[in-house]
Each structure stands twice: as structure tokens, then as C-alpha cells.
Amino acid sequence: MANFQITPRAAFVESNELNFRSLYLFHTPLGSNQNQSGIIDSNVTTGLGATVVNNWPICDGPSPGATVVARAQGLHIYAGNWQNTFSITFGVERYVHICIRTY
After folding, report:
1. Is the model's pLDDT at 48 over the cut of 80?
2. How confident is the model at residue 89, as a pLDDT?
3. Rounded to 5 degrees, what are φ and ψ at 78?
4. Which end of the chain is more exposed for a tag (fewer CB within 10 A), N or C?
5. SS3 assignment, position 20
6. How far is CA 71 from the centre of its chain?
7. How far is Cα 66 from Cα 88, in angstroms, rounded to an integer?
8. Are 26 and 59 in contact (CB under 8 A)?
9. How far is CA 99 from CA 6, 95, 102, in A?
10. Are the C-beta atoms of 78 and 84 separated by less than 8 Å?
């Protein structure tokens, strides 16, 4: 059973620590079940700027038959390191009121 904890900090809401236990994010860049796709190629000279959109499932277990409880939807950009921005939207009724954005 998936559970999570939100630990408030003495700062803005954006600084809360989110601790999800027993939830697993699956990204599949290749194959028939691909859940991310490149939309902009990197600059040939610098190698920077590759942009990929994603719709990663978040499941309540590590096995292929686990239940999808949320989706991480957004993009990642290569700027020397990969920078990720996505929203986590829960679809399971007990989590449906939670929407998390990462920046």
C-alpha cells in the first residue's frame, strides 16, 4: 500500500519536503511502451538544449502489474545536466485532490 508524508518547513509551500513511500516512477524511453518523447534535438556544437516531454506512470509497486496511482507529466531539458519540470497528478480517489508541481 502506497503512503506519503509531507514535511512542512519554515519557508514557502514550494519548499516542503515530499516523502513518498512505496510509490515507483517508471520512465520508458524506448520500445513499444514508450512514455517520453524527444521534441527538440540538442545543439550540434554544444550538446545543450535537448528537450523531452514525459507522461511517466507512478505505481504502487515495482512490478509490471502494479496499479498506476498517478502520472508525472512534464518535460526535461539538457543544460549540462538534465533539468526536470513536471506535475504529479493523482488519479486514485484517495489521492485525487493532490496535484504537485516541481520546478
Report:
1. yes
2. 82
3. -90, 115
4. N
5. strand
6. 7
7. 18
8. yes
9. 13, 9, 10
10. no
| Tens of pLDDT, residues 72-84 | 999 999 999 999 8
Task: Please report where in the chains the cell 504502487 appears, as a residue.
Answer: 60
Q: Tell me the C-alpha distance between 89 and 9, whole Å.
A: 23
- For residue 102 the three cell numbers come to 516541481
C-alpha cell at 100: 504537485
SS (H, E, C) the chain: CCEEEEECCCCCHHHCEEEEECCEECCCCCCCCCCEEEEECCCCCCCCCCEEEEEEEEECCCCCCCCEEEEEEEEEEECCCEEEEEEEEECCCCCCCCEEEEC
CA 28 to chain centre: 12
